[in-house]
Amino acid sequence: MFAFSTAFIMVVLAEMGDKTQLLAMAFATKYPWKKVMFGILVATILNHFVAIAAGIYLHSFIPKDIVELVASIAFIVFGLWILKDDELGNEAEKNHFSIFWTVAIAFFLAEMGDKTQLATVALSAQIGADMLSILVGTTLGMLVADGLGILLGATLHKYVPDRVIKKFASLIFILFGAVGILHAMNIINLY
Where are the domains of the chain? Predict the structure, then answer.
Protein backbone atom coordinates (compact mmCIF):
# COMPACT_ATOMS: atom_id res chain seq x y z
CA MET A 1 0.00 0.00 0.00
CA PHE A 2 2.96 2.33 0.64
CA ALA A 3 4.14 2.07 -2.98
CA PHE A 4 0.68 2.76 -4.37
CA SER A 5 -0.11 5.75 -2.14
CA THR A 6 3.35 7.25 -2.58
CA ALA A 7 3.16 6.88 -6.36
CA PHE A 8 -0.38 8.29 -6.51
CA ILE A 9 0.33 11.37 -4.36
CA MET A 10 3.67 12.00 -6.07
CA VAL A 11 2.12 12.06 -9.56
CA VAL A 12 -0.97 14.10 -8.63
CA LEU A 13 1.22 16.79 -7.08
CA ALA A 14 3.84 16.71 -9.85
CA GLU A 15 1.18 16.88 -12.58
CA MET A 16 -0.60 20.00 -11.28
CA GLY A 17 0.05 22.76 -13.81
CA ASP A 18 2.29 20.47 -15.86
CA LYS A 19 2.29 20.56 -19.66
CA THR A 20 0.40 17.27 -19.90
CA GLN A 21 -2.39 18.61 -17.70
CA LEU A 22 -2.63 21.63 -20.02
CA LEU A 23 -2.52 19.22 -22.94
CA ALA A 24 -5.52 17.36 -21.48
CA MET A 25 -7.36 20.65 -21.14
CA ALA A 26 -6.59 21.61 -24.74
CA PHE A 27 -7.70 18.24 -26.13
CA ALA A 28 -10.92 18.38 -24.09
CA THR A 29 -11.87 21.61 -25.84
CA LYS A 30 -11.62 19.87 -29.21
CA TYR A 31 -12.56 16.22 -28.63
CA PRO A 32 -15.04 14.29 -26.44
CA TRP A 33 -13.68 13.93 -22.90
CA LYS A 34 -14.10 10.13 -22.81
CA LYS A 35 -11.88 9.67 -25.86
CA VAL A 36 -9.31 12.07 -24.40
CA MET A 37 -9.31 10.24 -21.07
CA PHE A 38 -8.95 6.83 -22.80
CA GLY A 39 -5.98 8.12 -24.82
CA ILE A 40 -4.40 9.46 -21.63
CA LEU A 41 -4.98 6.15 -19.84
CA VAL A 42 -3.32 4.04 -22.53
CA ALA A 43 -0.43 6.46 -23.03
CA THR A 44 0.17 6.70 -19.27
CA ILE A 45 0.14 2.93 -18.72
CA LEU A 46 2.58 2.40 -21.57
CA ASN A 47 4.80 5.33 -20.61
CA HIS A 48 4.96 4.51 -16.92
CA PHE A 49 5.51 0.82 -17.64
CA VAL A 50 8.49 1.81 -19.76
CA ALA A 51 9.64 4.09 -16.93
CA ILE A 52 9.35 1.35 -14.35
CA ALA A 53 10.74 -1.51 -16.45
CA ALA A 54 13.44 0.21 -18.48
CA GLY A 55 13.54 3.91 -17.58
CA ILE A 56 16.57 3.46 -15.38
CA TYR A 57 18.56 2.35 -18.41
CA LEU A 58 16.97 4.71 -20.96
CA HIS A 59 19.40 7.54 -20.36
CA SER A 60 22.34 5.32 -21.27
CA PHE A 61 20.90 4.73 -24.78
CA ILE A 62 19.07 7.97 -25.60
CA PRO A 63 20.22 11.20 -23.97
CA LYS A 64 17.44 13.04 -22.13
CA ASP A 65 18.14 16.17 -24.19
CA ILE A 66 17.39 14.30 -27.43
CA VAL A 67 14.10 12.94 -26.03
CA GLU A 68 13.15 16.42 -24.84
CA LEU A 69 14.07 17.96 -28.20
CA VAL A 70 11.90 15.47 -30.17
CA ALA A 71 8.97 15.94 -27.79
CA SER A 72 9.33 19.74 -28.01
CA ILE A 73 9.28 19.69 -31.80
CA ALA A 74 6.17 17.49 -31.63
CA PHE A 75 4.53 20.09 -29.37
CA ILE A 76 5.15 22.83 -31.92
CA VAL A 77 3.72 20.61 -34.67
CA PHE A 78 0.61 19.90 -32.55
CA GLY A 79 0.26 23.64 -31.86
CA LEU A 80 0.37 24.48 -35.56
CA TRP A 81 -1.98 21.60 -36.35
CA ILE A 82 -4.60 22.98 -33.94
CA LEU A 83 -4.68 26.24 -35.92
CA LYS A 84 -5.04 24.53 -39.28
CA ASP A 85 -8.64 23.86 -40.32
CA ASP A 86 -8.34 21.14 -42.94
CA GLU A 87 -9.67 17.74 -43.88
CA LEU A 88 -7.19 16.04 -41.54
CA GLY A 89 -8.78 17.67 -38.51
CA ASN A 90 -12.27 16.84 -39.73
CA GLU A 91 -11.25 13.24 -40.42
CA ALA A 92 -9.87 12.90 -36.89
CA GLU A 93 -13.21 14.00 -35.49
CA LYS A 94 -15.10 11.49 -37.71
CA ASN A 95 -12.73 8.60 -37.07
CA HIS A 96 -12.75 7.73 -33.38
CA PHE A 97 -9.44 5.90 -33.62
CA SER A 98 -7.70 9.01 -34.98
CA ILE A 99 -8.75 11.00 -31.91
CA PHE A 100 -7.50 8.24 -29.64
CA TRP A 101 -4.16 7.95 -31.45
CA THR A 102 -3.69 11.73 -31.58
CA VAL A 103 -4.18 12.00 -27.82
CA ALA A 104 -2.23 8.84 -26.95
CA ILE A 105 0.80 9.74 -29.07
CA ALA A 106 0.84 13.35 -27.86
CA PHE A 107 0.69 12.24 -24.23
CA PHE A 108 3.27 9.52 -24.66
CA LEU A 109 5.71 12.00 -26.23
CA ALA A 110 4.92 14.71 -23.68
CA GLU A 111 5.65 12.34 -20.80
CA MET A 112 9.00 11.17 -22.19
CA GLY A 113 11.63 12.64 -19.92
CA ASP A 114 8.98 14.58 -17.98
CA LYS A 115 9.20 14.99 -14.22
CA THR A 116 6.42 12.44 -13.58
CA GLN A 117 8.20 9.82 -15.68
CA LEU A 118 11.53 10.55 -14.00
CA ALA A 119 9.86 10.45 -10.58
CA THR A 120 8.36 7.08 -11.52
CA VAL A 121 11.82 5.81 -12.45
CA ALA A 122 13.26 7.06 -9.15
CA LEU A 123 10.40 5.61 -7.10
CA SER A 124 10.65 2.21 -8.78
CA ALA A 125 14.41 2.17 -8.24
CA GLN A 126 13.89 3.04 -4.57
CA ILE A 127 11.01 0.67 -3.78
CA GLY A 128 11.96 -2.10 -6.19
CA ALA A 129 9.73 -5.16 -6.10
CA ASP A 130 6.26 -3.58 -5.94
CA MET A 131 6.12 -2.60 -9.61
CA LEU A 132 2.36 -3.20 -10.09
CA SER A 133 1.45 -0.92 -7.17
CA ILE A 134 3.70 1.80 -8.56
CA LEU A 135 2.18 1.47 -12.05
CA VAL A 136 -1.40 1.58 -10.74
CA GLY A 137 -0.59 4.48 -8.39
CA THR A 138 1.15 6.61 -11.01
CA THR A 139 -1.52 5.88 -13.63
CA LEU A 140 -4.41 6.78 -11.30
CA GLY A 141 -2.53 9.88 -10.17
CA MET A 142 -2.15 10.96 -13.79
CA LEU A 143 -5.83 10.32 -14.51
CA VAL A 144 -6.96 12.34 -11.50
CA ALA A 145 -4.72 15.32 -12.30
CA ASP A 146 -5.46 15.27 -16.03
CA GLY A 147 -9.15 14.64 -15.35
CA LEU A 148 -9.21 18.04 -13.64
CA GLY A 149 -7.64 19.53 -16.77
CA ILE A 150 -10.25 17.81 -18.95
CA LEU A 151 -13.07 19.11 -16.75
CA LEU A 152 -11.74 22.64 -17.04
CA GLY A 153 -11.27 22.28 -20.81
CA ALA A 154 -14.79 20.92 -21.35
CA THR A 155 -16.24 23.74 -19.24
CA LEU A 156 -14.30 26.37 -21.17
CA HIS A 157 -15.60 24.89 -24.42
CA LYS A 158 -19.18 25.69 -23.36
CA TYR A 159 -18.51 29.38 -22.65
CA VAL A 160 -15.59 30.47 -24.81
CA PRO A 161 -15.71 30.60 -28.64
CA ASP A 162 -13.83 27.81 -30.45
CA ARG A 163 -11.49 30.19 -32.28
CA VAL A 164 -10.30 31.71 -28.99
CA ILE A 165 -9.73 28.27 -27.47
CA LYS A 166 -7.88 27.09 -30.58
CA LYS A 167 -5.56 30.09 -30.53
CA PHE A 168 -4.91 29.75 -26.80
CA ALA A 169 -4.31 25.99 -27.02
CA SER A 170 -2.02 26.47 -30.03
CA LEU A 171 -0.07 29.15 -28.17
CA ILE A 172 0.38 26.84 -25.17
CA PHE A 173 1.67 23.99 -27.36
CA ILE A 174 4.06 26.23 -29.29
CA LEU A 175 5.27 27.92 -26.09
CA PHE A 176 6.00 24.59 -24.38
CA GLY A 177 7.71 23.39 -27.55
CA ALA A 178 9.91 26.47 -27.80
CA VAL A 179 10.85 26.37 -24.10
CA GLY A 180 11.60 22.64 -24.40
CA ILE A 181 13.87 23.20 -27.37
CA LEU A 182 15.73 25.97 -25.55
CA HIS A 183 16.10 23.73 -22.50
CA ALA A 184 17.23 20.71 -24.56
CA MET A 185 19.87 22.89 -26.21
CA ASN A 186 20.99 24.09 -22.74
CA ILE A 187 20.10 27.71 -23.54
CA ILE A 188 17.80 27.96 -20.53
CA ASN A 189 17.72 26.02 -17.28
CA LEU A 190 14.28 24.92 -16.04
CA TYR A 191 15.33 22.89 -13.03
Answer: 2-184
